[in-house]
Amino acid sequence: MAASDLPNTTTSMPPSVLYNNIWQQFGPILERYNMEFCTIPLTFDLQMNPFRYRKTNVPEPMFLVHAVMALAGHHVKSPSTDDHHYTALKLLRESINASGNVEDGCSMLDAIMILFSFDETQSTLGYWSTHLKGAYGLIEACGGIEAWTTSARADAQIGLLLWWDAITSLLSRENCVFPYAYVEAILSNPDNRKWNFFDLCGCPHSVVTLLMQVVRLSAEKRQSSSMRYVTFDTTMVAQIEQALESWHHISPAALAFGSEEDIQKDQDCMHCSEAWRHGLLLYIYRVFRWKPGSPIPTHVVRWARVVVDHVVACRDESMVARQALLPLFFAGCEQRDRSIRQKIVQFCSVWNDRTRYQMFGSTIPLLEEVWAEQEAKGFENVWWGHVVDRKHTVYIRGQPLIKVDRAAGLLPCLRNQACTLVFQALHSSMHKQARNILLLRIKRTESISKFALSNKNPARKSSVLIHDCKAVCVLTVEQSLSGP
């Protein structure tokens, strides 16, 4: 056969697609992200939406593009979501190490915000502490809060970071990542800002102010409980409690001349605000007042029912009700009535499907675990803190292997001092049948790895590669980690 008779395999290959710019390659999904997906975490969309992708970035930071594509990919169930997520983390880490000015920092902070939101789509447990510490370090490296709050968008982003910091600390009863000076700066002069906390997270400014104080007090209370000669002073707690009990929603004066929709919107805001107010009262009782074995006062049961009633009173088409997930969780842990419990489960399930944020769905097994333990040990002997704390400590042979640093990042507490691994783990329990997934960081190389430890046979040596949105490598961990 002559050479000219051979098939031309080169010309038969499909040509690769060449793009002139990022928008030509990813334009449709980036547009949809800006129009739809970036508004989901917020109560109402804002002009300076902290999650919106800014087209003005030239050239486009690829870590930010991949972060957006990861979050958008989750919503459209794209098979490339994992790749985009890993690439975003990798490029962001490289960029943070190579830059130190505010202009570059703005894009990095954008990416951190989006990656935080991405983790919320996966579970109630995530790399919260890691993201928050990264954001705080970035802000400090680029001039501190004074250099950032001149931008309304960056100001709103810091406000949301402080909210996330407070919420994760509220659950863990540990110290916040951001110093209180940041909180004081953001809470000052609310009327001069182009955003407000309710639009960001569904909690009014005055209640947020009280919540920020409760967070610090709960950390102090937990620390003092381990000190023999320290007695926690509840004076400030009583003052906050009194302020919450006397708080009431104030409708805007312009509402008298507003439309029917304005009235409906104001009612939704009132219901969500009341849910947060009563949820904080429930929190204060359990963290500062409750003693194991003591009967639950009737007013606590009433507060719990009030939270549920306010949440379900919000209109179905409104996005407001979903912002009250945490107070609804606190209320659910105080409910014994099965019909009310079922209503809470249904709420979480509906919003899990509507938003595609798995923090709603993963709240269900957490509630069910609290309820099951209450039925087994007695309602007066169990509270949500027992279950949450247990979720954030990994046990091998009944002994704590690592203890939690805030709500996600785990600090080493290894019994084998020769071990060179520093665990930074996520304990995932999105469904009853889900396995416990641990994400590990190798201290010497700082590379992200993944290790899945089977619940069924924890003594078995495991080496498992799992493709999901949280890690990329394989790590073999021997049973000897639990040795003396």
Can you walk me through this structure?
This protein has 484 residues and is mostly helical. Among the domains are: 251-391, no CATH class; 392-482, no CATH class. It is built from 19 helices and six strands. It has helices at 9-12, 22-35, 62-76, 81-98, 102-122, 128-141, 145-148, 152-172, 180-187, 197-201, 205-225, 235-246, 260-289, 298-313, 325-332, 338-355, 358-361, 363-377, 384-391, and strands at 394-396, 399-404, 410-412, 421-423, 436-442, 448-453. The strands form two sheets. The protein has a three-stranded antiparallel sheet, covered by helices on one side. The protein has a three-stranded antiparallel sheet with strand order 4-5-6, with no helix packed on it. Strand 1 and strand 2 form a beta hairpin. The radius of gyration is 24 Å and the shape is globular. 40% of the residues are buried. Residues 1-16 and 394-484 have low confidence and may be disordered. It is found in: Nucleus. This is Fungal-specific transcription factor domain-containing protein.
List keywords for this structure.
484 residues, mainly alpha, three-stranded antiparallel β-sheet, 19 helices, globular, disordered N terminus, disordered C terminus
